[in-house]
């Protein structure tokens, strides 16, 4: 049995049941999303730090302008004055989405991963601006991530595409799904799909730091499927986290899932936004180098490589330029940790911060090496070069391996591609 024996039905459209997750900041690039779309699957882009992403792609100056506007405040631990310009957010989001969807060439779809926890000093209005602009620009689907998104649907209920665009929710428990569905049913807008993300996923985890090890994806997926059946709700369920082979995917599809979401193996593709040297680091990593820590100011546990440069940060908070994690009062855990460490530092000592990190800067600079639990297995998926480096596959190589391989077999990229690497 192969993944290709199954199809994902969303409304009237049928897809290859492979979804590439939305990895930010700009790891899931336009090119990576389009690779999945061209092959009939679904690719995500992420709107994490979208203004900064546009600055890198289109040479805009959103970040520079914001930093200059609030330059008077850089040494002030009180960030309550710092706000994003909602017009800039909408403009950047629309530019990024149009840039991507205008290049579609297949029968698949491009979705956007929208993170509730990117509070951006005004959680409701900045999220409304991002969601509305993405719909204005023609995005095929919105995946609501990083939080319960209890009021997210209310923010866009009056948008003309509210019932047209595909809307999905990422959850890590049946309880979280139940909470979201209560509001969705009142608005008569149940999700078009549900991504169930388990404890082996990369980046932030939807579990407490103490109990993530006690859960497994298959059990949660079965609970969700059984619940939906009991409630007579025909919503496609898409498992995510730790699905490394086509055989892994088939196990979930045979159990009743409609598709799978995968990401780890795509981090090292040519289309991924990670710098090539970081991709090599991912492939070379060993299992013991993968950790779950609590350094994220969001309060969520986060899986990353323990050699991530961001873990050695002691930089001044860059909220005037970034500030994507500032809450509605202008606070962030890293600000508190930075100024506490600064006050305790004696003359001649090196400033050291161990409990939190400046995630906005770390993600923007590709210094926060978030990863899935199976990252240490990446070396099984590609070829080693004569100089000791690893071949970087195309996204198509990996997509087709998921689609057509059987069991635990992994088809490595062809040697012809290796010569041209």
Topology:
Layout: E1 8-10, E2 13-15, E3 18-20, H1 30-38, E4 42-46, H2 50-58, H3 62-69, H4 86-101, E5 109-115, H5 123-136, E6 141-145, H6 152-156, E7 166-171, H7 174-186, E8 193-197, E9 203-204, H8 217-230, E10 237-240, H9 246-254, E11 260-262, H10 276-284, E12 290-293, E13 302-305, H11 333-344, H12 359-364, H13 395-404, H14 415-419
Parallel strand pairs: 3-4, 3-11, 4-5, 5-6, 6-7, 7-8, 8-10
Antiparallel strand pairs: 1-2, 9-13, 12-13
Quick rundown:
This protein has about 425 residues and is α/β, with parallel strands linked by helices.
Q: Briefly note the structural class of the backbone.
A: alpha/beta
The CATH C-level name of the domain at 3-272 and 391-409 is Alpha Beta
Q: How much strand?
A: 5-15%
Mean pLDDT: 95
Give the helices and strands as they follow along the chain. EEEHEHHHEHEHEHEEHEHEHEEHHHH
The whole-angstrom Rg is: 21 Å
- Low-confidence sequence ranges: none
Task: Please name the fourth-level CATH homologous superfamily of the domain at 3-272 and 391-409.
Answer: Aldolase class I
Q: So how many helices?
A: 14
Walkthrough of the structure:
The protein has 421 residues and is α/β, with parallel strands linked by helices. It has a domain at 3-272 and 391-409: Aldolase class I (TIM Barrel), CATH 3.20.20.70. It has 14 helices and 13 strands. It has helices at 30-38, 50-58, 62-69, 86-101, 123-136, 152-156, 174-186, 217-230, 246-254, 276-284, 333-344, 359-364, 395-404, 415-419, and strands at residues 8-10, 13-15, 18-20, 42-46, 109-115, 141-145, 166-171, 193-197, 203-204, 237-240, 260-262, 290-293, 302-305. The strands form 3 sheets. Strands 10-8-7-6-5-4-3-11 form an 8-stranded parallel beta sheet. Helix 1 (30-38) links the parallel strand 3 (18-20) and strand 4. Helix 2 packs across helix 4 (86-101) and helix 4 packs parallel to helix 5 (123-136). The longest helix is centred in the first third of the chain and has 16 residues, at 86-101. The radius of gyration is 21 Å and the shape is globular. It starts with 7 loop residues before the first strand and ends with a helix. The mean pLDDT is 95.
């Amino acid at each position: 049995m192969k993944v290709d024996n199954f199809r994902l039905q969303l409304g009237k459209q049928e897809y290859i049941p492979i979804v590439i997750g939305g990895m930010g900041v700009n790891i899931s690039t336009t090119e990576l999303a389009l690779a999945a779309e061209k092959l009939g699957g679904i690719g995500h882009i992420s709107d994490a730090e979208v203004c900064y992403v546009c600055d890198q792609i289109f040479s805009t100056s959103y970040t520079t302008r914001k930093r200059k506007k609030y330059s008077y405040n850089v040494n002030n631990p009180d960030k309550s004055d710092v706000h994003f310009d909602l017009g800039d957010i909408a403009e950047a989001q629309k530019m990024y989405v149009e840039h991507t969807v205008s290049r579609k060439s297949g029968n698949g779809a491009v979705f956007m991963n929208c993170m509730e926890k990117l509070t951006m000093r005004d959680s409701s209005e900045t999220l409304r601006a991002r969601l509305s602009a993405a719909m204005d620009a023609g995005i095929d689907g919105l995946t609501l991530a990083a939080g319960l998104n209890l009021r997210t649907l209310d923010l866009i209920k009056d948008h003309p595409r509210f019932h047209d665009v595909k809307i999905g929710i990422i959850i890590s428990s049946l309880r979280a799904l139940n909470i979201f569905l209560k509001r969705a049913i009142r608005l008569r807008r149940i999700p078009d799909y549900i991504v169930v993300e388990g404890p082996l996923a990369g980046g932030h985890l939807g579990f407490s730091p103490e109990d993530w090890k006690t859960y497994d994806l298959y059990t949660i997926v079965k609970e969700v499927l059984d619940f939906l059946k009991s409630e007579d709700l025909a919503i496609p369920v898409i498992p995510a986290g730790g699905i490394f082979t086509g055989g892994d995917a088939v196990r979930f599809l045979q159990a009743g899932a409609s598709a799978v979401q995968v990401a780890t193996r795509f981090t090292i593709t040519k289309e991924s936004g990670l710098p090539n040297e970081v991709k090599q680091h991912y492939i070379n990593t060993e299992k013991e180098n993968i950790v779950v820590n609590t350094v994220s100011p969001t309060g969520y546990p986060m899986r990353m490589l323990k050699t991530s440069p961001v873990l050695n940060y002691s930089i001044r908070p860059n909220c005037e330029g970034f500030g994507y994690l500032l809450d509605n009062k202008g606070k962030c855990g890293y600000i508190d940790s930075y100024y506490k460490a600064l006050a305790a530092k004696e003359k001649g000592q090196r400033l050291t911060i161990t409990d939190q990190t400046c995630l906005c800067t770390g993600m923007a600079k590709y210094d926060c090496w978030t990863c899935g639990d199976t990252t240490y297995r990446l070396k099984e998926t590609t070829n080693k070069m004569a100089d000791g480096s690893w071949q970087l596959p195309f996204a198509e190589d990996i997509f087709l391996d998921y689609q057509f391989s059987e069991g635990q077999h992994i088809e490595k990229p062809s040697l012809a591609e290796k010569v041209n690497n």
